[in-house]
C-alpha cells in the first residue's frame, strides 16, 4: 500500500471528512515522523511499533570489481521494531497465503 492508497482508504472510512483534509493530515503525520527520526528521537506508535535512527559507523569496504579498498562514510538509517500487537496480527495471518513454486 502506498501513500495515495492510504489517503484513499482513510477518505473512504472518514466519509464526513474532505479528502484534502485527509491528505493534509497524512502528510503532516509523515513529516512529523520523519523530522522526529531525523533529529535522533524515537517515535513510538502504540501496538504498531517504534521508529528510530540507527547509526552505521564509517568503515573500509571493497570494490567488488577491482577488489580495491573504498572508504564508506558513516551514515544513518531508519530502524523499525514492530510492536507486540502488529507481530501478533502478522503471525495470525500466516495461513492466509499460498507459496507458489
From TrEMBL:
The keyword Hydrolase does not apply. This is Integration host factor subunit beta. PANTHER family: DNA-BINDING PROTEIN HU, INTEGRATION HOST FACTOR SUBUNIT BETA. GO terms for cellular component: cytosol. Gene3D superfamilies: IHF-like DNA-binding proteins (4.10.520.10). The keyword DNA-binding applies. Belongs to the bacterial histone-like protein family. InterPro entries: Hist_DNA-bd (IPR000119), IHF-like_DNA-bd_dom_sf (IPR010992). CDD domains: IHF_B. SUPFAM superfamilies: IHF-like DNA-binding proteins. It comes from the Bacteria. Keywords: DNA-binding, Plasmid. It holds the Pfam family Bac_DNA_binding. GO terms for molecular function: DNA binding; structural constituent of chromatin.
Amino acid at each position: 500500500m502506498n501513500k495515495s492508497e492510504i489517503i484513499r482508504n482513510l477518505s473512504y472510512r472518514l466519509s464526513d471528512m474532505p479528502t484534502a483534509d485527509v491528505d493534509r493530515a497524512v502528510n503532516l503525520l509523515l513529516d512529523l515522523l520523519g523530522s522526529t527520526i531525523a533529529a535522533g528521537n524515537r517515535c513510538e506508535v502504540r501496538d504498531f511499533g517504534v521508529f528510530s535512527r540507527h547509526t552505521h559507523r564509517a568503515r573500509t569496504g571493497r570494490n567488488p570489481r577491482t577488489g580495491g579498498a573504498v572508504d564508506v562514510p558513516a551514515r544513518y538509517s531508519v530502524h523499525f521494531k514492530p510492536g507486540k500487537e502488529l507481530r501478533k496480527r502478522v503471525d495470525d495471518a500466516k495461513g492466509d497465503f499460498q507459496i507458489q513454486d
